[in-house]
Design goal:
Blueprint lengths: L18 H31 L3 H14 L4 H10 L5 H5 L11 H27 L4 H17 L5 E2 L5 E2 L4 E2 L1 H10 L1 E4 L2 E4 L2 H4 L8 E4 L3 E5 L3 H22 L7 E6 L2 H10 L10 E4 L4 E5 L4 H18 L5 H10 L7 E3 L2 E3 L6 H8 L7 H6 L2 H6 L4 H18 L3 H15 L10 H11 L4 H16 L1
Parallel strand pairs: 7-8, 8-10
Antiparallel strand pairs: 1-2, 2-3, 4-5, 6-7, 9-10, 11-12
Length: 459
Amino acid sequence: MLALLLPAFAPAVPPAGPAESLARVDAYERKVTTRLFERFFEAGKPYYFSGYRKEAIHFFRKCLEVRPRHVGMNRFVRLLQDYDNPAWKKKRWRSPKERVGAAFVRKAEACDEAHKSVCVQVGTYAFKLRRDEGLEERARASFLRALELHRGPIELDSRGRIDLGDVSIGEEASALLVERDLVRVDDRLVVRDSMLRSLPDVAAVTEARGEHVLVRTLDSEDRAAALVPLLDAAYDALAEFTGQEPDETLGLFVFPDREAYQRYCDESGHAVRRMANGFAHGGDGFAVTFLQPGLEEIATHEAAHLFHFQAFGSSMPSWYDEGFATTFGGEGTVEWRDGALTVARPLAARRLRALLDGDGWIDAAALVAGDAAEFINRMDGSGPRFYAASWALYTFLRTTDDERFRAPFEEWEGFCLGAGYDRAGGEAGDAATLFDRLFADVAGELDAALRAWVEEAAG
């Protein structure tokens, strides 16, 4: 079946701008990305045949990045995500939490380096042919993707060219990018992402780096540096818990107050998050929060969101996301003392009692269908209860000895984490739908079992 995927490439970019020039750019891009597509495909095949579904999908999605309308590959990825596909049901898939070792990381990095070089080639070709803003923007988009794939520092050589290691961007294009898309933070050139674009004074940003993390603030470098050991420790705890070690940096931006945080939410298209205490945005590779009481547990909570996204790359229902993250950042679930971080402790009993008092209970059906932002924005106290209930459901299903609930949860979690569900592509709902199916026979019993467990845990 895999051999059927390679023919019939489709253009990666729809026509726009001067037809003749754009056609030449399209033809050039098809030429230089054909080998790249094949490289990504060959990188994924051994993982597919060895049963590493998550890793195979990682590389096959890379194929779709350079050939987004490739019919065969789109169909194949969807088949890998289809729980009912009989061919895959017969195959023995490994757990998505199983370590694959450094070989996968090396192969992924090599593929990213090759992809970076091709992006620079396409950008350079389009930039030379630019006749209007459309082709210039096409070139700029290719260059920006190259900058995203670049793992080292961004530097300018003696001629003002952006040096990306094995490749460089031409002088004129570099000047355009420096003017429009790059800024200096602590004397480092960085891409002006959605976070930095929202700031009136980028010069005020300071940052501190650890082994796995990057913290930026508008407060002081000392403030940023103080959070680095905590988040590096959180990375280690998350790696031990999940069996994964993503090589992407965990980024955290700490705004000085809620007002600055809310301004960022409004200006970056995340207004729905403005009443939250922070949120993680996997697209930018950063989580954001602001100076507030309990900052340490909020920081590790958001870091857990980022880590999970980087490790598994699969969109899950809101209750699962928040239940997992609260395990690593919630009232009582973490303790940071004398440079040591303890995680996955019980949630504070008062948070659980709030679920049991009066009308505080969120029944299981409403919980699994709910969204954290929606509960927070009600401004009626149900936001904190949603987080507590999410932690309770996640922890109950993960630790219960009752096979009625543990077996379908393990099957559901294993399949979905390996499926690479894409929120932007509308696939996030697939995980929620599958949960409903696998728990259909015990749906009426889940709420009662969860409540009994919460009552016992609340003491």
